[in-house]
Design goal:
Radius of gyration: 15 Å
Helix content: 10-25%
Number of strands: 8
Order of helices and strands: HHEEHEEEEEE
CATH architecture: Roll
Length: about 140
């Protein structure tokens, strides 16, 4: 069954709000876009919503520019993929990447259940980030 226009627009709104709140460092608004037991995956590590604000505080500030997500929906569950460019505010260095998402329809609207980042590397490969943990201080920093 094809995705309805309403669901497509609602999921586009969700992912656009994520980009806007991240770029403006509106952490509480970002957390509100996830279900309470959601996971954000980066640096080969799963972060709970309790840990997500600390992860955001450890990241550089900058501008997140996204394309509309490609989504699939079945009833109240969905998946999606969205490419993005992150531009560091201080250096203007760019990161090219994409998100793979799992969504759930809630009484408050669509929310992220899981958001995973995959980075495109200059050498032609892709990965989920350098193996370090900016929140817990573990790994290879």
């Amino acid at each position: 069954m094809p995705v309805t226009i309403e669901d497509q627009l609602a999921l586009q709104d969700l992912t656009t709000r994520y980009a806007q709140h991240l770029s403006r460092h509106e952490v509480g608004d970002l957390v509100d876009l996830f279900v309470p037991d959601a996971i954000y995956h980066a640096f080969n590590t799963d972060y709970s919503m309790a840990e997500f604000p600390a992860l955001l505080d450890s990241a550089p500030r900058g501008q997140l520019i996204v394309n509309p997500p490609l989504v699939d929906v079945v009833d109240d569950d969905g998946t999606g993929s969205q490419h993005y460019i992150f531009i560091d505010q201080r250096t203007h260095d760019m990161r090219l990447a994409w998100y793979d998402d799992i969504y759930r329809r809630t009484p408050q609207g669509w929310r992220f259940v899981r958001r995973t980042t995959t980075f495109l590397r200059r050498h032609g490969g892709v990965d989920h980030g350098k193996e370090h943990d900016p929140v817990r201080g573990t790994g290879q920093g």
